[in-house]
Design brief:
- The protein is 49% helix and 8% strand.
- The protein is globular and about 65 Å long.
- The protein has one domain: Jann2411-like fold, CATH 1.10.3300.
- It has 194 residues and is mainly alpha-helical.
- Helix 1 crosses helix 5, helix 2 packs across helix 3 and helix 3 crosses helix 4.
- The chain has a two-stranded antiparallel ribbon.
- Bound molecules: zinc ion (ZN).
- The site of zinc ion has 8 residues, from loops.
């Protein structure tokens, strides 16, 4: 993955954001009833479809690794919308991703124009390295915090926040509308109870 020639603005979608949002959305959430990374073959198929490494050799153990990596990313994405599951949970996700970074390193390619981060390794390890290089790419452009998970608890879909000030908490106006309606009803109920 080439990363220096990213989008002009941090709020633009790019290969890196699409890869990460797509990867986190392989799990069961409000818009998808079935797990996509069930086994090695499914993992191979998914990474092949997004052109992120040749993971034809992926095993069921690799599928478990993929799901763990996804959970850790999800923990960070939840922190990006201010979900207050506690410092410990974020720290756990961060620790997992640091261990993953040692297993699936990325490498710097320095040129006169800048520095590109490329995935390393072969097979499915390279696919996992693609994910981490995508995070590094977004972070280098100030866009990592824009990768979020919808705060609507019937949705939880990962999305890329394209708002100017990076303030979105929901994946769509449908979700923000649902949450606003719910908050309004709760307030009304509270008033009636008083
Ligand atoms: Zn949503």
């Amino acid at each position: 993955m080439k990363v220096t020639l990213g989008p002009a603005r941090a709020g633009d979608e790019c290969l890196s954001s699409n890869l990460l949002v797509g990867f986190v959305n392989t799990r069961v959430h409000g818009k998808q009833a079935e797990e996509q990374l069930t086994d090695g073959a499914a993992v191979a198929k998914w990474f092949q479809a997004v052109d992120a490494g040749d993971s034809a050799d992926a095993t069921d153990a690799d599928a478990a690794t993929a799901r763990e990596l996804r959970d850790a990313l999800l923990g960070i994405l939840r922190a990006h919308v201010g979900c207050d599951e506690g410092v410990a949970m974020v720290a756990e996700s961060e620790a997992h991703l640091q261990r993953a970074a040692l297993r699936f390193p990325v490498t710097t390619v320095v040129t006169a124009q800048g520095c590109e981060l490329h995935p390393t390794g072969t097979g499915v390890d390279r696919s996992f390295s693609h994910l981490l290089s995508a995070v590094a790419d977004l972070a280098s452009r100030g866009a990592w915090r824009r990768v979020k998970v919808c705060k609507n608890d019937t949705c939880y879909t990962a999305f890329f926040d394209k708002t100017r000030n990076s303030s979105a908490l929901y994946c769509s106006t449908t979700c923000s509308g649902q949450m606003a309606t719910r908050a309004y009803r709760e307030r009304k109920k509270e008033c009636a109870a008083r």
